[in-house]
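Human
Can I borrow your eye for a moment on a structure tokenisation matter? Give me a protein, with the fold worked out from its sequence. Write it directly below this note and I will take it from there.

Assistant
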Amino acid sequence: MPVVPGMTDLTAPYWEAAREGRLVVQECQECHVLRHPPLPECPSCQRQGHGSRLGWREVSGKGTVYTYTVVRHPTHFAFADKVPYVLAIVELAEGPRLVTALTGAAPEDVRVGLPVRAVFREVADGVTLPYFEPDAGGRHGTA
């Protein structure tokens, strides 16, 4: 049985884009700050009395490993046959950071600064998850 994320009205655009093989992050239409995970209001603009005009922006899906850990003990029975696996925080080229699973590399080959790119895998009927894998094509810094 696959483990699928909880989907809400707030996160629906993210999951719809993933089903289409696109990576999107929330963007404040007032200050244009990109963020993930999405929030109901922009924390920066809210302090200034506005910040509820939020939208979504497609990003490149390229980034670098900001930090990571190798999971050697499954925290859920659905992951028992997957250990060891790498959980990472990926800093996107556009700035936001995402928590994700890193695939396509042995745990001992993962390092901070490793260039990665988003890949999309259908894990259940109608549920596609973004993962990241090493990107041999080059170096990705923040924008």
Observations:
- The mean pLDDT is 89.
